[in-house]
Design brief:
This protein is an alpha+beta fold. The chain has 17 helices and eight strands. Strands 1, 2, 3, 4, 5, 6, 7 and 8 form an eight-stranded mixed β-sheet that branches.
């Protein structure tokens, strides 16, 4: 379980891990990772092996369950707050069309934000049939009830939900035409200005492709600076095709889901070598590109080429489900098929790209998962969920029904920053085939083996700086951070390198490693560049300027 640098180190005994009980900050399911101050402390270290420089004497004791102990300040809380990230990492799996995958394959996509491509919904709807049976009333068979939803949990009928939905959104029907006209009129006036967006005009297919892959599982406001930086380095598809994988990873670093960056580069190479540099213009050809599924192909085809291709993402699912009061779980095969069917009916217009963007815009800004702005919705008069709420039959937020996901796993390890004034810090490159493949990271080991890892890397006595936490690929990673002087003179592993900060800042480095280095730099700024046994200033008293180890 150790990193390659620790292959020869076997821990004498398994150290206890923090029990993330209810209310434990490291078990928080929010998409933004917990701050360093929320991270639990690691277990007590053997006497004489580790110097916990920053922890008060009273706090140096074995760990206990978070559920049993009141929250207390950890040593890391003395660090200046670090920038938060709004993404999680799924680098080991493709993120295309997660909205249409079975529930069992979507665990890692559980953390979502209102404006992300897959937003969290409020679960739970009541079955109209079940309520009628309990009240002794018979439901009319003349036509489906216009407003009441159903759910499998209540014993509801999926077919009943979809029959009502197909009646309400019949292709080329009056409701569909009214929705198209009203949505486009609203979108022309109320759309957000985004760097990749063109309204009532065809957009550059390369720009749309890049933006759509960046927007998978990631908030719009997070994507914008990364999108601009990407185009500064790779302004055209051919520039991207000529770039090295390390260059691409470095520009993408911090955005998460790193497989997307690799897919963009692989797709650019495919277009350059197999398609003579001509960007594919049909849904079928677009889906031949790495990482491009039905949703991304439909987005590029409609927005860049004006094809009447549907798209279904989290925002579209929410909008369609509320329009038709579909309360069946969104992962049900029949419901998934209906969403694409309804989206195709909506895209059958002279402006399919704008219509698709209008539905996503409505879901992101008006028809949000929580506290939707129904009073300002341009299509509220055709919304069955809105009518149900007005009739006192439940909130609009009942729709759609998203099945509850498993809580994230907890992962705690020790990370050791080995530093030498002249040679810099020791970094380890992650192997291919796993999370953050090819990225450079701080060497890690099992909890309690920091001193052993330090000796392995040519370091001396370690000092504990604190802990950092980061949400990554369906888990919460906690790293107990240690530092020591020394370093590799003649590294024995190809994956290990010692480099100066000015050098590693140009390498692909993950968010968690950046947090660790920020903590380390704060420690250096507090006056501890070499002598680890001297007293250390608290971070609050440290100079504001960070000392860079050039």
């Amino acid at each position: 379980s150790c990193s390659p640098a620790m292959a020869a180190v076997a821990p004498a005994a398994k150290r206890p891990r923090v029990d993330a009980g209810p209310g434990c900050p490291v078990a928080d399911k929010a998409q933004d990772p917990p701050s360093d101050g929320q991270a639990p402390r690691g277990p007590a270290q053997p006497a004489g092996a580790v110097v916990d420089e920053l922890a008060p004497a009273a706090s140096r004791q074995p760990p206990v369950s978070c559920a049993e102990t009141p929250a207390r300040s950890s040593p890391a809380s003395r660090c200046p707050p670090l920038p938060e990230t709004t993404i999680v990492d799924l680098s080991s799996q493709d993120t295309e069309d997660i909205a249409t995958q079975p529930a069992s394959s979507r665990t890692a996509a559980a953390r979502r934000q209102p404006s992300s491509r897959l937003a969290t919904e409020s679960p739970g709807v009541s079955s109209a049939s079940a309520r009628a049976a309990r009240s002794g009333r018979k439901r009319s068979s003349a036509k489906p009830a216009p407003v009441k939803g159903s759910s499998q949990q209540d014993g509801g009928n999926v077919e009943e939900d979809l029959a009502r939905a197909r009646t309400h959104l019949a292709p080329a029907g009056e409701v569909v035409r009214s929705l198209q006209v009203s949505l486009l009129s609203w979108f022309d006036k109320a759309h957000r200005v985004l760097p990749w967006r063109k309204v009532n005009a065809l957009a550059d297919p390369y720009h749309v492709w890049v933006s759509e892959l960046m927007l998978q599982q990631t908030r719009v406001e997070t994507v914008i600076p990364y999108y601009k930086r990407w185009l500064e380095h790779f302004p055209t598809l051919m520039d991207l095709a000529k770039a090295t994988l390390e260059q691409v990873r470095s520009i993408w670093a911090g955005l998460g889901y790193y497989r997307r960056a690799e897919n963009l580069r692989a797709g650019a190479i495919h277009i350059a070598e197999k398609m003579n540099g001509e960007f594919p213009s049909t849904v079928e050809d677009l889906q031949k590109l790495p990482g491009v599924g039905r949703y991304t192909a439909g987005a590029v085809a409609s927005i860049a080429f004006g094809l009447r291709a549907p798209i279904v993402d989290g925002n579209v699912i929410r909008v369609l489900s509320r329009w038709c009061a579909v309360g069946a779980p969104t992962t049900t095969k029949a419901v998934v098929a209906w969403h694409w069917e309804a989206a195709a009916a909506m895209a059958d217009t002279e402006r399919p790209g704008d219509l698709n963007q209008a539905m996503m815009e409505l879901g992101a800004t008006v028809c949000t998962p929580k506290q939707p702005s129904c009073n300002s919705c341009p299509v509220a008069e055709w919304c069955l969920a809105r009518k149900a709420e007005a009739a006192g039959e439940g909130s609009v937020m009942r729709f759609p029904r998203i099945l509850k996901k498993a809580p994230p796993k907890q992962d705690e390890r020790d990370a050791v920053v080995v530093y030498h004034e002249d040679r810099g810090v020791v970094l380890e490159q992650r192997p291919d085939g796993g999370l953050l493949q090819g990225f450079w990271d701080v060497p890690e080991c099992d909890v309690g083996n920091a001193q052993t890892l330090s000796h392995r890397l040519g370091g001396g006595k370690v000092a504990r700086l604190g802990a950092v936490s980061h949400a990554l690929s369906g888990r919460v990673q906690t790293r107990n951070v240690y530092a020591c002087e020394g370093g590799l003179v003649d590294p024995t592993e190809d994956t290990l390198r010692q480099m100066k900060i000015s050098e590693w800042r140009g390498k692909p480095v993950g968010v968690q490693a950046k947090k660790i280095f920020q903590m380390f730099e704060n420690w250096i700024a507090a006056g501890r560049p070499r002598l680890l046994t001297q007293a250390v200033l608290p971070f609050a008293a440290a100079p504001s300027r960070v000392v860079e180890l050039e």
